Amino acid sequence: MKKIVLAYSGGLDTTVIVPWLKEHYDCEVIAVCGDVGQEADFEAIGKRALASGASKFIRLDQKEEFVKTYLWALVKAGTPYEKKYLLGTSAARPLLAKGLAEVALAEGADAVAHGCTGKGNDQVRFELGVKAFAPEMEVIAPWRIWDIQSREEEIAYLEDHGIPVPMKKEDSYSRDDNLWHISHEGLDLEDPANEPHFDGMLKMCVPPEKAPDKAEYVTIGFEKGVPVSVNGQKLDPVSIVHTLNKIGGKHGIGIVDMVENRVVGMKSRGVYETPGGTIIMEAHDRLEMLCLDKKTLSFKMTVAQRFAEILYEGEWFSPLCKALCAFVDSTQEVVTGQVTLKLYKGNIIFAGATSPYSLYDASLASFTTGPLFSHKDSTGFINLFGLPTKVRARLNERIKKHGVAAGPDVVKPGSSGYTAPAGD
Questions:
Q1: What is the pTM of this model?
Q2: CA distance 312 to 76
């Protein structure tokens, strides 16, 4: 008898996979659920796993590690994937895969299994994570080998086996949620021409038009790029995200509807809710504008884009990701201070920032001339800065006038009438 450790969420896919694995592998199934802050009744999930045929249910409390190690790295890097996606699912998957592999090794399992489809990104993320900790472990991905072709067929499978369906048929969006976000895919979202039905979809946020008519101010405190307080109150990492989710969700902050490029090469459409994360990322960006010099900020933006791609593609445990995180951390030594934002009907409005490491100097920026700056200095600076432009313009004038690049002052061979004496 094989022993298989299954990444179990309690949703439709993994609820079907438990009895399917037992049918096809004559195995013991251990269901492992990583708690990364999702809104879930873990007692009910555990009962569902056992009722589906699992021999054991294990819940891993990974919330603190998720925020401190993964989300704060994302915040410090600072760039969403393809300008919009704040990488909520992407950031959690490496940690979940790590936990899955560790349980499999501890239980002496023959294989691990997951409920990711052959079209999705998560199969890549899970399996790269497992390879990093259990490189010889067999991975079973039922969606890549079974005959079931749709969520409707999954529901029928459970009904045929007398197992309760863990959702209403009319609300079968494919969802993933954790402390950072919740994603929605499928149903009407599969056609990009359709406007999303937020009223029946959103879980963390209200639609912006239903947000309060009065704006709310929120102040985030940072130390070395990491959020440490909300409205002057020091909080632990999990509480910071949870608190800002409540505040942001109330004002319809962080709702993104996008078509993205998946790892496997196709485009997909999804709706993401990331209320607290959107507030934190905006505040962090504003603080970096104040504290980082021009060239460091510019290069960091390039690094951040690559970091987002690496995290999206499941390469968290790669040497390159480790190296990029080290660079990002070095830039965050001065990203300390407070940022105030105004939240109003889905919008975030900057309302001020302070930092002991601020590079903003009022005597330099003001129209009033201070002791560090003389307007006269700009003449020489512009002459030197613009010298390539001036040289290029003079060349273009000569070409236009003479039809050649060489100017009239350039002596061409034989044009002077001088001939060298014989023997020279």
A1: 0.89
A2: 16
